Structures are given as structure tokens and as C-alpha cells.
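the two lines:
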Amino acid sequence: MKKEKSTKLELQYQNEKSRPKGVSQWNIAWRRFKKNKAALVGALIIGFVMFLAAFDSLIAPYPPNATPGFYVGEARVPPSLKYLFGTDKLGHDVFSQVVYGARSALYVGFGAAAIAMSLAVLVGLVSGYYGGLVDNVLMRITEIFLVIPFLLILLVFLKVITAVAPASIGGLSIVTLMIGVFSWASNARIIRGEVLRVKESEFIEASKALGASKRRIIFRHIFPNVLHIIIVLTTLMIATAILVEAAVSFLGFGDPAAITWGHQLQLANEAVKEAWWEGVFPGLFITLLVLGFNLLGNGLRDALDPRLRE
Amino acid sequence: MSTEMVLEVKNLVKHFPIMSRGVFLKKQVGIVHAVDGVSFAVRKGETFGLVGESGCGKTSTARAILYLDPPTSGEVYFEGQEVGKIFKSKNKQEILKLRRKMQYVFQNPYASLDPRMTVADIIMEPFAIHKHVPKSKWYDRLYELLELVGLENYHAERYPHEFSGGQRQRICIARALAVEPRLLIADEPVASLDVSVRAQILNLLQELQRKLGITYLYISHDLSTVKHICDRVAVMYLGKFVEIADTDELFSSPLHPYTQALLSSIPVPDPETKALRIILPGEVPSPINPPSGCRFHPRCIYAKEHKCVENAPKLVDVGRGHLVACERMFS
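prediction for all of em together
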């Protein structure tokens, strides 16, 4: 039935000047994505956190790091209308701090993912396409990065750097950079594998037979055909980076000047019994945002998988 | 038909080393003798068939000719120029010129079109590479090519997955024709298509040959399509040619025992005819360790032990351009 309809449409369009554009694989992926409720929820969560980050000073009732409760004896008070999420020991409004933390989380997530994925794509493409000795050397380096106990090294580096460098260069940027530099390896391997698969396809051979340059083959054929994997990996990478930053801050190795959810968790740690609201709300936001990116990533993976049809 | 040779292949050898993987070093543990000393010439404007069962080296021959896999040894001359020399010279302009003259149509039209590109992008890519068509004429030429292969203009903005196998093969042919080649190597172009579509594609190829005067090197294991389309046929077995002859000659009086067995396997669409089937004993030997002497001797009913095991027969002309590589021809 469906097929009949489409052929009729085709016949109709033949005689018209404006012909329909073909349905690209991206169009198909978008159609599939729209049907995926979980992925839409994920996108919604991310959109919500982005909204908080964009208008943080408008949404938060108090300026960053302000201690409205400190002088009036309202430190560590439970949630109320005045302090939606309560206040902590120093009289910070937890709600305001959570709102300001959104920007840090997204900054670290996108920043670290950008660094990690750039490295991963570079290594994956070069290693997969050129093969041979280049591949061998790059993959051995990748393996070294894979076997390093990543979190420990990260903590040591951060300790050294924050001790040596002046605080003014921005601790959060260093954390972001370090996370990015240490988490590209597994993604590089996945991308390499995908490049190897695409490289052997007949359409690459056809381009070679036509005389296409290496640059054309890599950027016009291989890259577009591994892009869907890169998009999915990036989304999941963002989630991982946010988690790692939270862990680092929670352990006290993050930037003490920055307002991050992990840092809030650390402060809340000493009074879990007396003031649950100090830890629960930042924790909830970390969970929500990471969940959002994971749902989005899974949705994208399903939508972009070329093996699945509608 | 002129007797001018478009393509001359002399003693072409293609070996693939088998490597064992170590951590850093690789060791060669064997050789696949895919193509072992093949010589032939293709005349201008003809369709030259290359027949043989799977794994006998047909595709390796074609890929070595096109330098997609550089041959191990031997020479390929295209219109008098040595192909290997041009590729080794790394002169980009010369290589591109040569690439324009020889094109390839792949076996599987489902895998040989980039799924992320529209038909227009696919067919116009050769224009971007070779710059032989001015940019203002790209779309005119695109529509000409689409018409030539029997597709409609509105197909241009579609993506490969929106087409059937036959249509995709038409797109592949259009892409190959976009550079105006003199030689088209068609590697089992209809093998993965429905039987009902095969005739259409074969007729299209023949029609294009009449219109454009292209020379074809047609590779197939399907004898009926070979009989339909080819002027001359070479039969390949385990990396070597066993027989070359005009199509009619080959199908009416095959001389090599392998060719005879191959031809007897063609099904006859008549239940009354009791066809004489020659069933070959055993399997095709491994190309990693091919038999000595005549490659066919372990399965040949005429194999005379002493000669066939030791002497590798050469292709010998037995008249009317019919070449056979069999010891029987000398005795």
C-alpha cells in the first residue's frame, strides 16, 4: 500500500518543477529520534539545565557565593519559600548555588568532550586510514592511555598544577583540559574500528578508481560515514566528563573558587544527617544531567544506526 | 572492429602475502597465488570476458590492472602506456589522466555507493576530481548521464538507499561514465541483481557500447551472460588462463578439459535433453599451495602423469585466435 502511494507521488512530481529532495539518512534518523520518548526526555532535561545556565543570574535569587543566611542566623536551615533548597553551614542559598553550578557542569562537560573527541577523531581517522606502522604506534600509545588509572593520575596532576600555577588561570579550565586529555583513548579505538570498516567499502574503492585524493576520501567519504558514531560518543563523553568533574571536586581536588555541584557535595559531606538538603539537591542535578545525556546518547545511537530501518 | 589493442597485459602476477601478527613485527607465513602469470590483450571496442569460478583470481586481475592493488610483477599497457610506470612515477596529473581512461563497475551496487551522498553528488564527484567539465555545465552533464543510463532527472536529489539494485547499478555505471572512459571493467555487474533485472543492465551495457564505443572487460562466473555479451572469452582456473577464444568458438568447441567441464554445467532449459555432465572430481586446490605443473592436473581426466605434473603448459594458438594451455594439444 505504502509503496503504491509513493510511486504515485513520484509520477506526480515528475511533471512539476519543484521536485522533492531525497530523504537523507539524517532525515530518517531524525524521524526515528522523534519517536523515541526517552531520548526526547533526555533532550528536555539538557535543555532545562542549559536554560538554568544561560539565565543563572536572573533565576538565582542571590548573587554567586553570597551568604544571605550568615549574618541573620539562617545558616543550615531546611528548605523554605525564602530558601527553596535550604542553606548550608556558611549561609549560602543552596538553590542559587545549584543554579550557578549548571554553567560549570556544562562548561566541563562540553569542554572536556570537545578536547577528548578532537583527539579521538584525529587519532582514530589517521590510525584507521593509514594503517601499518602509523596505526601500530598510535594504537600502542592509545593502549598506554587505556591502562593508566585515569582518576588517580588526574588527581595527582591537579594537585601538582594547582600548587604550581597561580589561581588566576582558572582552575575549572585546567580540570576540563585534564579530563579531556585523559579520556580520548577508548573513543579513538572505537572510531578507528569504524574507519577500518568504512575504508574497505566498495564505494571507497570506487572513489580511488576515479582518482580521488586521500584528503577527499577521508573528509568526503570516511568522515561523513563515521560522523554518527562520533556524535553518539560525544554525547556519552559529555556525561562521563560531568561525572568525573563531580568526583574530582567532591574529593577536594577541583577548583575551590568555582561553584560546582561536586564541590557542594563535598561541603555537604560533613552534615549528611543534619542537613540532607545540602547534598541531595546538587546530587539530584548531577544525576539528572548525566541521565539526560545518557538518554540522548542512547536515543541518538538507535536513531543513527544505519543497520536499523524505520 | 579494429585490431588496435586498448589493453595489453603481460605476465601479470598478483601474490598476497599471509602475515602472522606479532606485537610489532609481522612475519610472512605464506603466499596466496591469486594471479600467476596472466597475459592477454583486449581489442578496441570489443567485450572481453573473463570467466572462472569464485576465487580463481578474476577480480584480483582486474584490481591489479587498475592498480587498486599494485601487481606483484608483470606489465599492463593501456593504449601503449605502461600503467605501473605511471603510478610509480607519482605524477598526479598523469595518474589522473590514466584513471579517467579506465573505470570500474563493482559487483555489489548496494555497497559501492556512498550512503551519505545524493545521486547528484555521487555522479558529479568525478567532475570535481578531474575538472574536465566546467562547473556551469555540471548539472547539464549530470542529467545527460542519468538519461543515458535510463534514470530520471528527479532521481538526482535522492539517496542510494531509495533505489532498487538495478537502479543502483545504473547509478554506478553513470558514475563510471562521468569521466568518459575508454575501458570499462565490469566485475560481475549483474551477479547480485534479480534475474529479471539482469537482462536490462546487460542490454544497457551493450547499448552504451554501441553509442560510446567503450571497450569492456567483463568479469563473470555466469556463462550465460558471458555468451550473451562477450566477443572473446578467457577462461581462468586457479590464477592462470587455460583457454582464450572467440565466444562462439569457445562455446561450440571448447578444447581445454576444464572449459569443457565448465560449459557442460550450463543448465539447458529443456527437460527432454539429457545433457552430458562432466563432473570434476575433488575440490579446487588452495591457491596458497597450488599444484605443480598444470594447475588442473589433479582433477583432469586426461592428466598424463609425467608431463602434466611437471610441465606447466603455455597458452598455444591452435588457429583462429583460439589459445589453449593444455599438454594434450601437443601430442
